[in-house]
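Human
Can I borrow your eye for a moment on a structure tokenisation matter? Give me a protein, with the fold worked out from its sequence. Write it directly below this note and I will take it from there.

Assistant
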Amino acid sequence: MALDDSFPQILDAARAGGEWAWAEIYNDLAPTVLGYLRSQGAREPDDLLGDVFVHVVRGIHSFDGDEAGFRSWVFVIAHHRVIDERRRLKRRPEPVPADTLDRRDQTDVAGHALERVATDRVRRIIERLAPDQRDVLLLRIVGGLTIEEIAGALGKRTGAVKALQRRGLAAVKRELDREGVPL
């Protein structure tokens, strides 16, 4: 987080219902949480982001810790929302509307095409990882969590998280080597 020394005051103000404090927390965390949700393949990442912050608002009074702990706590909530979504979709898959189109501004077609290719490539590499490896790498890289925080979030030992991270990075490297992209 970029809140640094002001975090205790912001946390207290958020607990008291201060809109400015919630805006600070949201503006600081939402972009990386949204990136994490997207990289996990969430069907509706913006909706899921809202759900994450609803859970944060509901549980903020029970949170006890520092800024790093708060960030970890938010990513644990995001991870659990992703798992919940996957379970729900397995039970009741949602049909994809036929008119689902990319509604972004179409003026920079070349830029959008390059962005899409890069995003698809990263998503393809991530999807090839084992689910546990993918979870560890995304929480580590996108979420910025420590090995210990990831272990707590996933209910695994730190040694297991380190091994998953090592194997996941090796798998990504193999995939990049296969595509001819040096690291």
Q: What stands out?
A: The helical segments are 7-15, 19-39, 45-59, 67-91, 109-127, 131-141, 147-154, 158-178. The chain has a mean pLDDT of 84. The chain is about 70% helix and 0% strand. The domain at 123-178 is CATH 1.10.10.10 (Arc Repressor Mutant, subunit A).
